[in-house]
Structure prediction request, 86 residues.
Amino acid sequence: MTKNEYHVASFVAHAVPGAVEDVQQQILETSGAEIHVTSPEGKIVFTIEDSTQKKIGMKIDALKYHTGLMSLAPIYHQFIDESLAI
Prediction:
């Protein structure tokens, strides 16, 4: 692990009807998280950015036990070693 790592991961959460706003609020309270779209059916597409994959995993672990979630699925993970960038 280098000091100059950058990680971004995307996820889709499916919230229980009536709990969408509560789930969105918890996501938004997560450092580095950004919601990109929410469907009328309660599907929430969001990303989390951090310096390590482990830190992103810890944040997802905190979100995945929300009682308002039916499912939470990872979609994509990108890692960049910024020390190698030109």
About this structure: Residues 1-43+68-86 form one domain.
